[in-house]
Amino acid sequence: MWSIPSPATSQALVPYTLQLNPDQLEQTGLGLIEEAAQLTRFQQYQLALPRAELATQLAPKSYQTWALLGSLYIQVDRIDEGVAALEQAQRLEPENAPVRFVLGEAYFRNGKYQAAIDQIEAGLKVRSDVPGALFDLGNAYYMLGKYDQAITQYEKAFAQEKNLWPAINNIGLVRYEMGDIKGAIKKWQEAIKIDEKAAEPILAIAVALYTQGQRQEALAMGETALELDGRYADLEFLKENLWGDRLLNDTQKFLDTPQMQATIAQLEDSPASVSP
Predict the structure, then answer these.
(1) The model's pTM
(2) Where would you tag: which of 34, 185, 203, 265 has the fewest CB atoms within 10 A of its CB?
(3) How far apart are the C-alpha atoms of 100 and 82, rounded to whole Å?
(4) What is the pLDDT of residues 182-193, one digit of tens each?
């Protein structure tokens, strides 16, 4: 009898499986997406991202979770993942205009300009009073070389928001690529009237004046622009801001002058003077 082993007590226990309430999980997911949205408002994208990712697992049928996740991916330059999340948001809520606008921006960032146009225009049919969407639409047309359509959308955007100087500035970019230098300068001057601290139109005018032989005035304006924001000395940064080939070529010549090179060198020695 003593040689017969006693049964292990654990063998008599039936494992308990926790029963999760789907509704509670969804509410938890929606709570997480609220936290992520709050963090996003303070540009805490890296903190917001894991919350948004978890929220899509807990509330996979909520388009809001996928939409915010997609926009966060775009903010941290994970464009392909952002597109996938936003496309899922659109499948869940096909007629939602803001989702279409953000998806259009994602397509634009991915170089899919016609797809961006299709999404933004579809969103504008639902909600037309969004100047930022009109501005993005103008950018997409501009990148496709459809200059007249681009100008039309920039004008619509500015008509809705009178402080939107980038819309006027970008009309100048378009006109310069069209060979209308005087028309471009006029638009950049209008942009400066809206915001006198806007470095981009100041530098653009400086380049245009330099190509027309007004060198002293051009160099003075160029120094002012770079003192306001030294990033504009970087041609790659200018390209990201949609400066076209014609303007970039002229800018390269302008920045290569001894006076502008001296200004750039001085700014590099004093990084505190360069805008973030």
Answers:
(1) 0.85
(2) 265
(3) 13
(4) 999 999 999 999
